[in-house]
Amino acid sequence: MIYLDNITFPSDDRESDFIWGIAQQCYTSFYPFRTLAINGITRLDFEPVTILYGGNGSGKSTALNVIAEKIKAKRDSLYNKTNFYSKYVELCEVETAADTPEEIRIITSDDVFDYMLNIQSLNEGIDSKRKELFADYLDTKFTKFQMQSMADYEQLKKVVKTRSKTQSRYVREELMNNVREHSNGESAYKYFTEKIGENGLYILDEPENSLSPKRQLELASFIEESARFFGCQIIMSTHSPFLLALKHARIYNLDENPISIKRWTELENIRLFHQFFELHREELKHE
Asked: Which strands, in side-by-side order, build the sheet including 93-96?
């Protein structure tokens, strides 16, 4: 599904006109002006899956965040904008399809890291609670108890419960919502599968961060299925070979000026991976 057809960023001349108009004022940075146009990024046309590929400073994250701001995408983490951000976004132009996505969302590395930190904080709280339950289990199970009245009934039930279970089973049942069921990579992958729904437009900034190669493969399959079968449009930046190899993805190589559309096998990173594994072909045969 295509909800966003294209975006046009301000040309170098248009940027210059704006900057000259405020040159008398004291600013040390005009970001995001002087970021995309000088790298040859003036227009992007989108497919159901579109990928921005490039090294640090190529403008891929800037482009994604500008797109997200222009189409009013939801985001979980705060995004610091400069003095000229709103004006730059205002100068951008987008063309959309007739269909309207049910959700528009950008997912950045900060969103995923914040999510994992929240889980870590919950786990630390659970670890503390677990220690309390261990002590409570031992105290309840091995302390002599004699029911004196009906007021002691709840304590009696607790004693019976502890004496009928092992320590680990008792603690586990008391912590049924223990969130320490996933590794960081599993939690990161879970974040994407929970946030990406049907019939939505999603912008992903280097989603491979925090994911193992196995999880990257799984995310690639999930993205491919979301675009093919569940009415999603995905626009993302990545260096991951597993994501770059997505079928029918349009890949913009932002390392070239002006930018160009490339097959994933033509990209420098992929060629380097290929050369490396070719160099170690005989070693890999014996594994």
From this structure: 43-45, 4-8, 93-96
The values of phi and psi at residue 227, to 5°, are: -75, -35
Which pLDDT value is given to residue 269?
92
- Rounded Cα–Cα distance for residues 35 and 26 (Å): 19
* Alpha carbons within 13 A on the beta-carbon side of 22: 13
Contact at 8 Å (CB) between 113 and 76?
no
Prediction pTM value:
0.76
pLDDT digits over 39-50, tens only? 889 999 999 999
3-class SS at 280?
Answer: coil
CB atoms within 10 A of CB 40: 15
Strand partners, 53: 253
The Cα 142–Cα 154 span in angstroms is 17
Could you tell me whether strands 233-237 and 49-53 are parallel, antiparallel, or unpaired per DSSP bridges? parallel
Spell out the residues 6+ positions from residue 115 whose beta carbon is closer than 8 angstroms to its own. Answer: 76, 187, 188, 191
Tell me which residue of 54, 51, 60, 79 sits closest to 9, measured CA to CA. Answer: 60
Q: Quick one: CA dihedral 113, 114, 117, 118, positive or negative?
A: negative
103 burial class (0-12, 13-18, 19+ CB within 10 angstroms)? middle
**Long-range contact set of residues 244-249: C-beta below 8 Å, sequence gap at least 24:** 244/51, 244/53, 244/269, 244/270, 245/220, 246/49, 246/51, 246/220, 248/47, 248/48, 248/49, 249/47, 249/49, 249/50, 249/51
* H/E stretch holding 260: strand 260-262
- Computed over every residue of the chain, the mean pLDDT equals 82
Kind plus residue range of the DSSP H or E element containing 134: helix 109-142
